[in-house]
Amino acid sequence: ARRRLRIISGHLRGGPRAPGRGALSPSPCKAQDGSAGPASGSIPKKRQELLKWNGWGYNDSKFIFNKKGQVEFTGKRYRLGGMVLPTFKEWIEKTFGASLEHKTTSRASLNVNDVPPSIVNEEFLQDLKATKISYSQDAEDRVFRAHGHCLHEIFVLREGMFKRIPDIVVWPVCHEDVVKIVELACKHNLCIIPFGGGTSVSSALECPEEEKRTIVSLDTSQMNRILWIDEKNLTACVEAGIVGQDLEKQVFLSGHEPDSMEFSSLGGWVATRASGMKKNIYGNIEDLVNSFNTFSNSSVQRFNFIMTHNERKEEVTCKKFILQNFAQFFFSPEGTLGVVTEVTIKIRPVPEYQKYGSVVFPNFERGVACLREVAKQRCAPASIRLVDNAQFQFGHALKPQVASIFTSFLDGLKKFYITKMKGFILNEIQVVLGQGGTVNSILNSKGRNKDLVNYRGLAAGEDNGQRGYMLTFIIAYLR
User: Fold this and answer.
1) How far apart are alpha carbons 266 and 61 in whole angstroms?
2) Does 197 appear as a known binding residue?
3) Cβ–Cβ contacts within 10 Å for residue 108, how many?
């Protein structure tokens, strides 16, 4: 018992460990290649230069009504960019009974006079300047980090203003900078709210109105380097501020794809216990993490958690039962227990190919039964989801204008075949969308097409599967 307590105490203190134990120690402000400071990422430090200050996503990507009164999606970043959606307006009016003639104009730009004044501890500010860590008290920077993307938060941004927002934004570039900031916060009795990608939908980024102390928004975006990659063991140590799209570009493949992966950060995934679309093969974030560093304001201690168990045989039980269970507290605290600074994740080679598929079912019960069979046979692709009829109709309304009369004729022919020849009712149709490279997938394998017959499933093609996957990233722009 004493021996176990010593082991646990050593982890909590961040004390010395025997060599070869696989412990993750915080990296200095230089990577192995000697580079210092942030890497060049997709999202700039001044995020409002690229992203909307009062909505989701890129400034140049949005749903608008064109001069003909039709819905159009702007920009060139997505497959739907620049395309007209001729039936979407009609679907909105019919489904929600909404009149698009009634409009409320939201504020187009931020009025700095509406922003609450900054409450800054001057002694803290002087100490912060001495560290040479970048910071800002600009209204735009503060407002951008005062919220996540809950509907009520977006509404407040467009119709009013938050009564309390961060007083100062700081940009650490490495673990050591985080240590300095947390120590100063403890010294001067300040509040810290870690800010990763800002895609939170749990209101965790909102500031309490009654808080009188200085609130510091600790933006991790400049901590975005790949510190090292171990190709033999397929692991990589990455700073927590890197966003999903940059992570997938720079390492082999992590396989973690939450709907917000374009903008959300690795540290945010850990702090929210995120789940991804491809969890069937790659797992959720807790399955992908080997270890991570988080720096806490509790006695300013460092916590190192090793999620693997490479120790000698007699130490495995202690590791799994005590340390791993204790580490689970640090998945999903949303910044309340510390700032995640570095994460060691499992990586995989990029798959040889990526294939999409879709299957149409006459009703929800048939779709559920088919997915149960997929689960029973353990033949699911990387991503598979059952789309109910409301989502099916919604996806159909987002279909772009066809390029030719022949294409329109083919679409009509397909609809006739499904409804008249096969007896499907449009208001009851369900769709299964799949993505992956599993040859045994019930969606893609010719040998398993007979299984679809048992559930009256009709293969709807790869293009519809890919469209369904793409719409995952588009629908947030409707907010």
Assistant:
1) 24
2) yes
3) 7
Distance of CA 297 to the CA centre of its chain: 26
Q: What is the C-alpha to C-alpha distance for residues 70 and 72, in angstroms, rounded to an integer?
A: 6
Task: Name residue 344's beta-bridge partners.
Answer: 237, 291
Q: Which of the four CATH numbers 3.30.70.3450, 2.40.50.140, 3.30.360.10, 3.40.50.1100 does domain 355-478 have? A: 3.30.70.3450
Q: List pLDDT tens digits, range 227-275.
A: 999 989 989 999 999 999 999 888 767 788 889 999 999 999 999 999 8
User: Is there a binding annotation on residue 335?
Assistant: yes
Intervals of CATH 3.30.465.10 along the chain:
1-54+106-350
Residue 273 is assigned to a ligand binding site: yes
| CB atoms inside a 10 Å sphere around CB 74 | 19
Regions in the chain scoring below 50 on pLDDT: 1, 4, 7-8, 10-25, 32, 299-322, 404-410, 412-413, 416-417, 420-421, 425-426, 428-430, 438-447
Task: Report pLDDT for 436.
Answer: 61
Cα 305 to Cα 302: distance, rounded to the nearest angstrom:
10
74 assigned to a ligand binding site = no
| Tokens (6 digits) for 346 | 């499992």
334 is in an annotated binding site: yes
454-464: b (≥16 Cβ within 10 Å) or e? ebbbbebebeb
Six-digit token string for 442: 């019930």
Residue with tokens 């709907």: 259
Domain formed by 1-54+106-350, architecture: 2-Layer Sandwich (3.30)
